[in-house]
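FORM 7B: Structural annotation worksheet

SECTION A. Query
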Amino acid sequence: METFTIWSLMIDFSIISGLLLVGTILRAKVKWIQALFLPASMLAGFIGLAFGPSGWNLLPFSKQLGAYPSLLIAVIFAAIPIGAAKVHLSEVFQRVRNMFSYSVILILSMWGAGALFGILFLSPLFSDLPSGFGLILGAGFVGGHGTAAAVGEGFAHAGWKEAEDLAMTSATVGILVAVIGGLFLVKRSTEKGKTKFITSFKDLPSELQSGLIPKHKRSYMGVETVSPNSIDPLVLHVAVIAFVIGVAYWITNLLSDLIPAVSFPLFSIAFVVGLLFQSLSRKVKADDYIDQRVMERIGGTATDFLVAIGIASINLKVVMDYALPLIILFAFGILWAYILFRFVGPNIFKDFWLEKSIFGWGWSTGTVAMGLALLRIVDPELKSKTPEDYALAYIGVAPAEIAVITFTPILFAAGLTWVIPLVLLLGTAIIIGIYKYTGWWGARKNNIDEYNMPS
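SECTION B. Predicted structure
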C-alpha cells in the first residue's frame, strides 16, 4: 500500500484487532503462556512482528503503522485527568507519603542511573553510540510502551530517528523482566513465608492465569451518565477525548510556529488540556456526567492497541545494530531495579512492604498494569490498599513523570546530556536524605532481614 487512505487505517486496525483476539485466545487456552502472565496485547505484538514488515512480511500493514503510537499515547495521557475524583492535596500527602516518595524515586533513579551508566560505561565501549543512549532504559522500563512512544517521538524530533525502535524494544524487554522477574520474586517470597495474604502459587485464582473472569466475579466497566436517546454514553466520553486531543494538536502546532527551536510533544499538551477541561467541567458542575471508569477503559483500549502496534512496528534491523549495548544496558537495568526493590522498598514502607515493592517492581520495569497483575498474585483481595495509595500518589507523581518525559529529549537536543542524570539522581538523593533526616527511613528495621533473599 503506497497511498495511505481511510481504508489503510481500517485494514491496519482490523489486522491488529484480529491479532488481539488471537492473543486473548492463546492466553485463555495455552498453559505455558498462562504461566508467563503475558498480556494479550504483547502476544498480538509478537505475532505482528513475526509476520509483519520486519518478519516474513505476510500481513498487509500500511507504511503508517509506526505513526499510530504518537496518537494513541495522546489518548492515554488525555484520559488520565478527565473524570478523576476531586482530592485535596493534604489528604494525598498525609495518606500516601511513602508511595509518592517511592514512586518518584523509581522514576528519577531509573532514568538517571540509566543515563549515567550510558555516559560512563557504554559510550567509552561503543564510540558510535548517541550520547543519550542510556536514556533508553528509562524510556522503556518506566511506563512501558506508552512512555516509549512519547520519548521516541521526542528524540525523533531531536534528530535521533532510531530512538523510537530502541525505546519500543526496551519497553518490550521491560515487560518480560517485570513478569519473569516478578514471578521469581513472588515465588521466592511465598516459599520463605514472607507474603501476608497467600502461602503458595497454587492459591492463585484462575482468572489471573487465563484472563477470563467468571460470571460471579465480573464488575461493570462504567455507568451510564446520560440518556442514550440524547447521546450514547460511550460516544460522549469518546467525544470528550477526541475534542481534548484536537485542541492539544492545535496548540502544539501553534507553539511549534511560535517557538520552532523547541519541540512540544502532543501527549504532554493533551494532558494539560485534559486537566483544564476537567477543571472547567468541575466549575460548571458537569464533571458528574463523566465517568472515571469509562475514561480508564478508553485509556486502557488505547494502551492495548499501542502495545500491540508498538511491538509489531519495531524495526529489527535497528535493534540488531544496537544489540550488544542494549543487552548490557538491560542487564544493568535489571540489577538496578532489584536494588530498588531489595533495599529502598523495605526502608520506605512501614506496612506491606513486600506487596507494595512487588507492585513497584512491576511498573518500574514494565507498566502499572504489570504491577497490578503481580500485586494481585501476592494480595488477591487488595487488602494492602496499594492501588488506592498509588492512585492518590499519582496526582503528585504525574507532574514529575511528565516533566521527565517532556524535557529529557529537549535537554538531549540542547547537548545537556550530563545535566539529565545529575539532576535526576540529585532528586533521588534529596528524597532519601529527607527520609534519613526525619527518621522515616528504615521504619521497620527488620524488613530487609525478613525478606532474606540470597545475595
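SECTION C. Observations
The chain has a mean pLDDT of 86. The first helix runs from residue 6 to 29.

SECTION D. Sign-off
Analyst initials: ____
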